Amino acid sequence: MSGQVVIPSVGNRTSAAAALGSPVPRKHRHAGPPSPFRFPAQAPDGDIAQRQAELFYLQKQIQSQTPMVIVLEGGELVEGHIEWYDRNTLKVRGRAKTLIYKSAIKYMYKLGEGGQ
Q1: What is d(CA 102, CA 116) in angstroms, rounded to the nearest whole number?
Q2: What is the full DSSP assignment across 84-115?
Q3: Could you give the CA distance from residue 40 to residue 101 in angstroms, rounded to a whole number?
Q4: Phi and psi dihedrals of 50, rounded to 5?
Q5: Were 102 and a residue from 37, 41, 69, 77 both cysteine, which residue would form a disulfide, CB within 3.0 to 4.6 Å?
């Protein structure tokens, strides 16, 4: 063997530079915490009044078993009465039981009103 020392390079700096204690700048993968994902049907935290109005309307339609027409974003119509709901979905009983994401709903109206 010869008396030469071979130092392999790592990135832009050699391992000898790292061994001498010079700081190696590091890039952070994450700039900060990711923003939370929200469904379009969900109201932001500051809009509590609209959320409560939505809950009141849905409960009223459930108790009276009002026949409803739900128009989806794709134009499809779902007819029936609302059985239950949660934060993200509605369960509609018509010809069949259907679970619908609130984010997929364009608008809804009572069956006899025409809605357009």
Answers
A1: 20
A2: EE-SSEEEEESSSEEEEEGGGEEEEEEGGG--
A3: 10
A4: -65, -40
A5: 41
